[in-house]
Design goal:
Glucose Oxidase, domain 1, 2 domains, 9 helices, 13 strands, 28% helix, serine-type peptidase activity, carboxypeptidase, S66_fam, carboxypeptidase activity
Length: 302
């Protein structure tokens, strides 16, 4: 897996909205953060326009992303918000120049399509990390600091307290993943995630329990768990109870879906749609250790 060059102070970074419209005050907040890091933010043309829930038309958002990918002065491209929209344009984006001059793509939620696309098609790493829209919930130092470390290539490792449903074990492999529903929707497209020999990260927000089960079942039937080395589960935010009640917690639903496999499973990693969203470098090798004392994740890209 190719890791794009890590950032240095003075680098230009693109800011785009390829999915939903983002409130201007959160864009201003992101700009201030990037400048404090010594970076030069470059706002794309998708910042500001609005068409329904989208940040402008499909053509505008596609062209904006294309420009940021092709501009050699831009060293990273940060998404401002998730929602929905990348699936509508991803097959119209030309990644030829990006293939030979890769740069960090940053975001989560709908950005899962970008992550799995560049990893599967181009063998290139990217970063799941906090976005401008997250500033609505306030500035969470640990989330933004972890993103800064990931972008600048600093040491990145985490420890998480033990969860009663964890399945103990160790694994060393490349990390991939993202939002469960989007990984499921990407099946059969060029953006489909390749999980063979990988550690898979999953998180989800706002779904009913039966939907969580259906997404997991779909991935399972597609063979996405067959050759996994490990499963890292992030935040399962605002998962809704069914009527009649489903009868299991979201964590129990996940554990049931992978019960016949023997890879380690770790719950409770603070990444996803919750208040804290720690950065993860998808496409980088990691060491995952799930013990009775807790879970540790260490990236080994340096």
């Amino acid at each position: 897996m190719t890791l794009p060059p890590f950032l240095q102070k003075g680098d230009k970074v693109g800011v785009v909205s390829t999915s939903n419209f983002t409130v201007p005050e959160y864009i201003d907040g992101l700009v201030n953060i990037l400048r404090e890091w010594g970076l030069e933010p470059v706002l794309g043309k998708s910042i500001g326009p609005r068409q329904g829930s989208f940040a402008g038309s499909d053509e505008l958002r596609k062209t904006d992303l294309q420009h940021m990918l092709d501009n050699e002065e831009i060293k990273a491209v940060l998404q401002t918000m998730g929602g929905y929209g990348i699936l509508r344009i991803i097959d119209q984006v030309n990644f030829h120049q990006f293939k030979y001059r890769p740069k960090w793509l940053v975001g989560y939620s709908d950005t899962t399509f970008l992550h799995s696309h560049v990893q599967g098609m181009l063998n290139t790493a990217s970063i799941q990390g906090t976005m401008a829209a997250d500033l609505e919930a306030g500035f969470h130092v640990s989330s933004w600091e972890s993103l800064r470390k990931a972008l600048f290539g600093e040491k990145l490792e985490y420890t998480v307290k033990s969860h009663p449903l964890n399945r103990l074990g160790k694994a060393q492999a490349t990390l991939v993943g993202g939002t469960l529903s989007i990984l499921c929707n990407a099946k059969g497209t060029f953006s489909e995630v390749n999980t063979n020999g990988k550690i898979l990260f999953l998180e989800e927000v706002g779904e009913h329990k039966f939907r969580v089960d259906s997404y997991l079942t779909s991935l399972k039937k597609a063979g996405k768990f067959n050759y996994l080395k490990g499963l890292l589960v992030g935040q399962l935010t605002d998962i809704q109870e069914d009527e009649p009640p489903y009868g299991k917690s979201p964590e129990e639903i996940i554990l049931e879906a992978v019960k016949e496999y023997d890879f380690p499973v770790a719950f409770g990693f603070p990444a996803g749609h919750g208040k804290v969203n720690k950065a993860l470098v998808f496409g980088a090798p990691v060491q995952l250790a799930v013990t009775e004392q807790g879970t540790s994740i260490r990236f080994e890209y340096r």
